[in-house]
Amino acid sequence: MYKYNLELSNIAMEGNVTMERLLIKAKHSRIQAVSSESHHEEWLSFLDSRCGSFLDIGAASGRDAHWFASRGWQVTAVEDNPQWERLYDGNAKVEWICDKLPNLLSLISKPQYDAILVSNQWPRLNQVEQQQALLRLFGLLKTGGLLVVTWSEGGEYKNEHPVDYLPFRKALIVEGPDAIDPSAIMYTAIFGANQSL
What we know:
This protein is α/β, with parallel strands linked by helices. It has helices at 2-32, 36-39, 63-69, 82-87, 127-140, and strands spanning 53-57, 74-78, 94-97, 113-119, 141-153, 172-177, 185-191. Helix 5 links the parallel strand 4 (113-119) and strand 5 (141-153). The radius of gyration is 18 Å and the shape is globular.
């Protein structure tokens, strides 16, 4: 009986892994169908065509990481689910790191970055973690750098925690339809767009 239950448990676990892979592949296709330019048009102009070091947190399919790397940026992509990295098919050089907010311990010995993009990670953090994450990100950002935090609400997005807007009081916040899921609203908080951090 124990062996039978163990086998059922293993089959269920394999089924969950397979289902997760299928869901990630489906989302991967939807992400890849939208260009980085159209998804991030609200803030790309703040980069002034410069190149430098770029940190992509919540890199998922690696679409944005590849886009920046192919334009001369030195890109570090951070994703806490290694299945996303396995789906990365870009030919541009991207350093992949398995880690997550709020601590990003793998980046302790890394230099600071000229630009940081955080995609749909904020609603995964509780209010205290959101504050910790923002302090950590400011510590990773070079003076005069650009920090962009995006998150979406509604549609297919099932957010774990509400976003605390108080830490974003000095950011420029842009609201618009989510290009990946048009039934959702995408919020973009931009620090460093001609303002003091």
